[in-house]
Design brief:
Elements (H helix, E strand, L loop, with lengths): L2 E9 L2 H12 L5 E5 L4 E8 L2 E8 L5 H9 L2 E8 L3 H10 L10 E3 L3 E6 L8 E7 L6
Parallel strand pairs: 1-4, 5-8
Antiparallel strand pairs: 1-5, 2-3, 3-4, 6-7, 7-8
């Protein structure tokens, strides 16, 4: 794992959260993005090398909606950047970690992603992220 890629925060109201965190960080988000496969809208802030991802559910049956219903708004996950997500998934599976998906999925911010089950990571949802490389022209 190369570094912390971002920290995810589940929110009920993305617009209100953007205002709150914008005031806190004294910056504006650099990106908003819909991740239709996960039924979530995201907003990203960047402070030096640290990224904060705000996540608002777009469907009451989504994982984020269920998380907020159960635990309320707040810390949702920590994401780590990896060089090769497939080999890292294989390594972690071999070490006994439970992966929440068998193959990487397209995530926000031009990333391939995979999540580790929090039951095997001291209750913390871990996301693996690999930048989707654009083909050379």
């Amino acid at each position: 794992m190369k570094n912390v890629e971002h920290i995810g925060i589940a929110v009920r109201d993305l617009e209100a959260a953007e205002k709150l965190f914008g005031t806190l960080f004294n910056i504006h988000p650099y990106k908003r993005e819909m991740v239709t496969s996960e039924f979530v809208e995201t907003s990203f802030f960047k402070i030096n090398q640290t990224k904060i991802e705000l996540l608002e559910a777009t469907d009451p049956e989504s994982a984020i909606a269920k998380f907020i219903e159960k635990k309320g708004e707040g810390f949702h996950h920590i994401a780590f950047e990896v060089e090769d997500i497939l080999s890292e998934m294989e390594r972690l599976k071999g070490e006994g970690f439970v992966l929440l998906n068998d193959k990487p999925k397209n995530g926000a911010d031009n990333k391939l992603v995979c999540f580790l089950h929090p039951k095997g990571t001291n209750g913390v949802l871990i996301e693996l992220c690999q930048e989707i490389k654009k083909p050379d022209l």
